[in-house]
Prior knowledge:
The protein is α+β, with helices and mostly antiparallel strands.
Amino acid sequence: MTPMTPLALALLGMFLACWLGAAVWAFLSGQRMRREGMHVQGKLDRVSVLLASAPAAPVIIHADGRIEAADRLAKWLSRDRAPAFLSELVSPEGGLEPTDAAQLGREITGAQRAGKSFALPVRGVGSSRLLLVRGAPAGPELANNGGVVLWIFDATDSQSEIEALKGQVDQLREALEALAGLVEAAPFPMWHRTPDMRLSLVNTAYVSAVDGASARDVIAGGTELVEAVNGLTPQAAAAEAVAQSRPIDRMVPATIGGERRMMRVVDVPLGAAGVAGFAVDQHALEQARVEHRRLETAQRDLLDRLSAGVARFGPDRTLRFWNQPFISLFGLNQERLSDHPLFERLLDQMRDARRLPEHRDFPAWRNERRDWFLSPDPLEENWLLADGTHLRVYAQPLPDGGLLLIFEDRTEQVQLSSARDTLLRVRTATFDNLFESIGVFSSDGRLHLWNSRFRDVWGVEEAVLAAHPRIDDLMRAVQSRLAKPHQANVVRELVRAATLERKQRGGHVGFADGRVFEFAAIPLPDGNALFTMLDVTDSRRMEQVLRDRNEALEQTDKVKTAFVTNMSYELRTPLTTIAGFAEMMSAGYAGELSDSARDYVAGILQSTTRLSMLIDNVLDLTQGEAGTLSIERETVDLGAVLRDCGTRAMVDAKAKRIDLALSIQDSLGTVSGDARRIGQALDHLLENAIRYCEPGARVLLHGDGDGRRARLVVSDNGPGLDSAQLAVIFDPVARAEQARQGQNATFGLPLARQLAEAHGGTLQLASEPGQGTMAVIELPRG
Length: 782
């Protein structure tokens, strides 16, 4: 072997060095490529894991219809394996609803041809799972031209959440609409401000309060409801609420409807949404508060003026109010009450003053009274104090948890009640022992009270009356006891008139046993009616006897009158004959008479004249009593009548030495009547005066008058009459008794009165013992 040249060695060395360098480079490059491959494999593994855990399953559809899909797609489509071709995916057996599968096929075809993206929700057959398919053309790195990549999402939970959110949105929308309607319908102004404090929403009440045309105009003009107070504008107040992050309310004045009113304005920060506000009219509330304070003051003044003791306790059971009678009634100290003691401490003070009822276990009694604060209803009880004072205690729980106590001193009422009970017992005993039968019927016609006489008269059992029967039922039960049963209706109607019409009525009723009762129904002030019955059986019998006797007397009087009249005429005939023969003898027809015979004849004539006058008087008196006295009516000159009477009486007056004076005034005048009868009355009065006067006495005949009547007076200064004589001087019975006893009973004065009364006038007689007598006749002009 030939040795190598140095050049060859050098070239070999260089070749080996290059080869070694290339090997090192190849080794290093392999190591780097291995590291990069491992890195890429790691990234691929991570991407695979990421795709596997992604919420969407990728599907690549090649132009020839082949499908590359994740295994999850088979599970979502309820298949054993994922579809390998597009035809499997969009076929009825592909696992999708037929309509959804057909729509998905059309969308994929559109993406392949037009290169547009799409999103389509689909559902599996018989599954509640909702799949959301998002498709787009695939890039060249994924598939050839015409490929489509699909991302399929399981949107079941998301769709449920979306549906729930839609429901919430609908609810919120309805709530917002309701809230907007509520704000709009609110009777007080409401508004909303944007974060820059400008008005953005106002309701109708706001527009009306600021006299705006519409909400749009109010918002555009920025019309504020209230004014700035102390430099604080409404915008500044709203900004302050935002700064403090809490609602702020304030009382500010506002002019609404031309009136100044006090408004309570509240600004409520809403965060980034701005500020809401509303205003409530406090004017009526403020007036109500003022009125409440006024009423409370008036009530306190009223309670302070009551005669009853009043104490009011607050919810904490401390004394808040008391009046002067309360202090006086319980002997309490004003200064100690000013400390507002507790209810229990006040009871202790009242016990120390011995102004509480005595109790063995006072603490237990006090605890029971403390429960008054918790009682749902008012309570009332009576206290009897050691000194005999009777107190009526009224406890009224108050709505605020307090208590109002009213103490009424009923000592006097109790005493009066006791006295009244005594009087009632006395009245009942008196009522039950009255001779009258008494029943009291109430306004509804029921028997309310009765006495034993009422029960005995009607013969009704006590048990029947105790049932308080109505008057109708009572009368039906007792009408058989009446002589005339229909009179029960009269009694019933009288009771009804007394109770309902308030009219007093009376009558009488007869019983079948012969008893007769007078009854009366009298309305009482309390609306009831008093029914009284009085047994008048004996009175009726006596009345009948007196009536029969009166009829007999009247008949006797008629007989007497007829007898007197007949006798007067019968006596006048022989008397006229006697007088005629006496006048003939006095005239000498029987020859000359001796002086004694002439005196006898004169006596006969005088006696016959007087007897004739007496007969005329008796006849006139009888006719006057019978009402048949004849009076002629003509104009009578009373002066002439008085002069004639005076002339006739002058003879008897001179014979007895009596001074007869005549006084006739111009005012006497005339009357309409009978001159003879008037003269006859005066003759009787003059005769009576002359007869009873002693010699030397004076008799006056006087006449005067006025426009309505004429007055004729006969007076004397004789012995006069006492009151007993005046009382019987015109009584016919007394005159008859006097005549029976042989006393002088003249007919002059009674006849004169009858003659005056027959003319429509009067005769008055006045006399005093030792002072004389005056008779006055007054005659009317008419």
